Amino acid sequence: MISVENITVEFGVKPLFHDVSFVVNDHDRIALVGKNGAGKSTMLKLLYGLQKPTSGSVNVPNGCTIGYLPQVMKIADDTTVLDEARKAFNDHTAMAERLKKMEQEMADRTDYETDSYMQLVERFTQEHERYMMMGGDNDEAEMERTLIGLGFERSDFSRPTREFSGGWRMRIELAKILLRRPDVLLLDEPTNHLDIESIQWLEQFIQNSSAALVLVSHDRAFINNITNRTLEITCGHVEDYKVKYDEYLVLRKERREQQLRAWQNQQKEIADTKAFIERFRYQATKAVQVQQRIRQLEKIVPIEVDEVDNKVMHLKFPPCLRSGDFPVICDDVRKDYGTHTIFDHVNMTIRRGEKVAFVGKNGEGKSTLVKCIMGEIPFTGKLKIGHNVQIGYFAQNQAQLLDESLTIYDTIDQVATGDMRLKINDLLGAFMFGGETSEKYVKVLSGGERSRLAMIRLLLSPVNLLILDEPTNHLDIPSKEVLKEAIKAFDGTAIIVSHDREFLDGLVSKVYEFGGGRVREHLGGIYDFLRAHQAETISEVVGERTDKEAAAAVQPVLAETPKAEAPDNKDSWAEHKEKQKKLRKAQRAVEESEAKIAKMEGRLKELDSLLMDPKNASNMELVTEYTTTKQALDKENDHWMELSEKVEALGQ
Predict the structure, then answer these.
(1) Rounded CA gap, 521 and 18, in Å?
(2) What are residue 215's DSSP bridge partners?
(3) Are 313 and 482 spatial neighbours (Cβ–Cβ below 8 Å)?
(4) Distance in angstroms (rounded) separating the CA atoms of residues 386 and 493
(5) Whole-angstrom distance, CA of residue 162 vs CA of residue 153
(6) Strands 380-385 and 237-241
(7) Alpha-carbon distance 410 to 440, whole Å?
(8) Which residues sit opposite 187 in a β-bridge?
(9) In Å, how far are 391, 410, 424, 435 from 438, measured between CA atoms?
(10) Measured between alpha carbons, how far is residue 439 from residues 34, 98, 408, 490 in Å?
């Protein structure tokens, strides 16, 4: 679909890419990965045509449509949400106008028998058929489904876009791109401004879309759920892995080990050659051999190893005062905005040292309760902050409080103490401010860069209660790992508002669920929380949307499923939902079984080929593996049959 041929991109002395080639095929779901500064966003711009390579070419077939969502974009503020989303259907709108004019002309004319009238009728018929094939009649329903799926309420549709934050306006732009149904989607950090429910809706949308995808994201769970191929930009070239991200990490580790061994062998060869040259340089009898070694040395192509990727940055919070046993106690806390109740009867006790998560869809009061704890807004009820509690708070607006006259390095140097002062450059590198970037002034940084810098300042502050509101936005996977490990090792208490399941997994021991004006406590991690509700998504648990909205939000998933009759009462609806959950679970089990069968069949073919080779005829290790794999395959086939029968029974 898109062909990249021998492209080179140069911004300075060292090329960003050199002689890179690959193809984006139909239905490819590609994760574009690499360390910060490797050129992931640049590659997306090259694919979209916003940037030209220094040499080589990017070839896009005629008629191929591409939708591109950059990390930062200029957003219009002169329309309502619905009118802005409707711009995705400008072609449909223009066609509808032409049809309306032709329809009016046919109504006004009376020369029904003339050739020109018949030609007009023919044109109208063809245009109308084309309009119907393009789905013009469904535009409004598609807009509503997509906007609700991305977290908007119907009451938001008529609001001006200027009333929304930058993150919500980016959701509108994402909605427009999805509504255009392009052949190829290029998405640069699409989950930065989405909550868990919206991310999971987007996952379902992409999984049910026929579009090819090239994705840059630091949400590991999101990448794993929707991609089937991984392109890694490393050392100025691209390594193509035909596997998901988790499998890529395993293969990449193996490749790096091989690469490192090859580098070590090459270094030994170079050292031995140089030693020979130095030893016999001045002996006439060895002159020919010395010259041969010199020529060999000149021909050696150095093996590159991306050392930055192998570094591990460990960060520990500075020591602080010990807080009381209960840093936060809420007793019947309530918050109203006018006549609208955000939450009521909130009772929670957070113990010293606990790491807890606040989850739920946007607008349910997660950030509002944080502001109550911070004392920023009034509320009713009792909220007690424990003895000696020192709060460190991170939210997106914290980035606006940085001193713009300082450089990045000086901003951190002001707060770093002890051994961390010797590791400032390493710390900045771990959060994407390595090298010359650390000398940039804060005033020239983007919003995302300022957020990362504010996060580093917080990590160096002596606090015993951390409150982090969406801390992983604008962080790459290694940076998130640094932050996650730091919070794990933190002696104090942490409250984390996040939509990043991978980040929360293994980090929190308690989940507070916000929904329907209530806050419910769940012991265990984020995936324990989901399993306890027998739910695949947080949105199923929260359950705050009306039945119509919920049906609209998952419409892309149900588009090809026969419609079931709506249950007549609450009990039958609950039974219906439970049956659907079991059916989805059984279908997933069938898919997993099919994947295992395909993998084993592939391995048996490989073993067949190996055993056909006479030199392997007596290799008992291969024979044993063949036998055990064949037995496992037979067993899995029987298991698949049982699962398939179960799916068939549940589907009746």
Answers:
(1) 53
(2) 31, 187
(3) yes
(4) 11
(5) 16
(6) unpaired
(7) 10
(8) 69, 215
(9) 28, 9, 10, 6
(10) 23, 57, 6, 29
Reported for 247-255, long-range contacts at CB under 8 A and 24+ positions apart, including other chains, are 248/31, 248/33
In angstroms, rounded to a whole number, what is the distance separating the alpha carbons of residues 412 and 428? 9
CA–CA separation, 437 and 343 (whole Å): 44
Strands 2-10 and 15-24, sheet pairing? antiparallel
Alpha-carbon radius of gyration of the chain: 30
Q: Are 343 and 514 in contact (CB under 8 A)?
A: yes
> Could you tell me the pLDDT band of residue 540, with boundaries at 50, 70 and 90?
low
**29-38, 383-392, 476-485: segment of lowest average pLDDT:** 476-485
Whether the pLDDT of residue 543 is over 70: the answer is no
Which tens digits make up the pLDDT trace of 189-231?
A: 888 777 777 888 899 899 888 899 999 887 888 898 899 999 9
Given this model, what pLDDT does residue 314 score? Answer: 59
Q: Kindly tell me if the per-residue pLDDT of 566 is higher than 60.
A: no
Q: Report residue 112: phi and psi, to 5°.
A: -65, -25
DSSP assignment string, 275-341: HHHHHHTT-GGGHHHHHHHHHHHHHPPPPP--HHHH------PPP-----S-SEEEEEEEEEETTEE
pLDDT digits (tens, 9 = 90+) for 496-513: 998 777 888 889 999 999
Count CA within 13 A, CB hemisphere, residue 581. Answer: 15
pLDDT above 70: residue 573? no
SS (H, E, C) 129-160: HHHHHCCHHHHHHHHHHHHHHCCCCHHHCCCE
Structure tokens that stand for 467 in this block: 């409150």
Distance CA 526, CA 197 (A): 14
CB 70 within 8 A of CB 191: no
Cβ count near 544 (within 10 Å):
17
Tokens read off for 321: 């005062």
Q: Residue 354 pLDDT > 90, yes or no?
A: yes
Distance between CA atoms of residues 139 and 54, nearest Å: 41
For strand 380-385 and strand 328-337, is the pairing parallel, antiparallel, or unpaired? antiparallel
616-650 pLDDT per residue, tens:
766 777 778 878 888 888 788 778 777 877 777 77
Rounded to whole angstroms, the Cα distance separating 24 from 12 reads 28
Do the beta carbons of residue 5 and residue 53 sit within 8 Å?
no
Distance CA 466, CA 471 (A): 11
Closest CA to 405 of 372, 444, 458: 444
Distance in angstroms (rounded) separating the CA atoms of residues 307 and 263: 12
pLDDT band at residue 542 under the 50/70/90 scheme: low
Packing angle, helices 620-651 and 570-612, rounded to 10: 160
